[in-house]
Design a protein that fits this description.
Oligomer: single chain
Helix content: 10-25%
Order of helices and strands: HEHEEHE
Radius of gyration: 16 Å
Structural class: alpha+beta
Strand order of the largest sheet: 1-4
Strand content: 5-15%
Shape: elongated
């Protein structure tokens, strides 16, 4: 895996130009949630488990376990707010910041 070869102490010679990744299926290895400027907040009491938020998330940051959605994957959520817009019950709101 790429994380086994390159880490924070890797010499610059081992890093590709532009830090490009040439392997498939490596997105889980990189915490891209730090890019976010807005954060979704999930209110479990308002949530009716309709799961409409799950398929619209471009980062797959709305995990589902045993047919129930769980807390956001903030390591990968970019804060786009699509989930909040599709929630018919107002169970997801957006707050500014991380």
């Amino acid at each position: 895996m790429i994380s086994d070869r390159i880490n924070e102490s890797s010499p610059w010679q081992d890093i590709t130009e532009g830090n490009q990744i040439y392997e498939a299926a490596t997105s889980r290895e990189f915490c891209t949630g730090e890019w976010r400027t807005s954060t979704p907040v999930w209110n479990q009491e308002k949530c009716r488990q309709c799961l409409l938020c799950t398929p619209v998330c471009p980062d797959s940051s709305v995990p589902v376990r045993e047919g129930q959605r769980t807390e956001f994957d903030y390591d990968h959520c970019k804060g786009c707010g699509i989930c909040a817009k599709v929630c018919p019950f107002g169970a997801i709101t957006m707050k500014e910041g991380k």
